[in-house]
Amino acid sequence: MLAAETQRLLHLHDVLTKEIGRLDDQVKRAARSDPAAPRLATIPGVGVFGALFLHAEIGPIDRFRSSHQLAAYAGLVPTTRSSGGKTTHGPLAKMSHHWLKWILVEIVQTLKLAPGPVGAYYRHLLRAKGKPKATSAAARKLCCYLYWMLKEEWTYSEWLQQHQQVRRPEVRPTQRLGAMA
Hints:
Blueprint: H1 2-33, H2 36-40, H3 48-58, H4 67-74, E1 78-83, E2 86-92, H5 98-111, H6 117-129, H7 131-152, H8 156-167
Antiparallel strand pairs: 1-2
């Protein structure tokens, strides 16, 4: 009886392995026909499946007017309360697109160890804010980067080059020093 049960389980394993392989091939074919998937797959830690998942969860980027709107859609923007001239920021909003938020946080788990702006931002906030807040803030930053990658049709390395050119211009203005009295 134990041998018969083992044979049935082995047969089920074989059938499921073939089905998973067939579905993997379908996903890879879908990735080849999606123009955004290869660009999103250039992000460290994002493969073919993650790129398709990201693109499916975000949808057409033109429906968002800004990167802040995409971050708010993902649920990565903290709540804000203002009263009497004081503004406080609270926890992340409970209303969110849970799957998009989840995959962005998962990508940050890889990027926080890698060199680059997301990892540097995470490490900058880690000591002051702690792991959960630093991870959420880094995911929000990544979400904004994704917006511009999709909007401008850049790969991750192309986006980094654009980002560095904006942040660090080659020629800096000089200020004339006046005479000290």
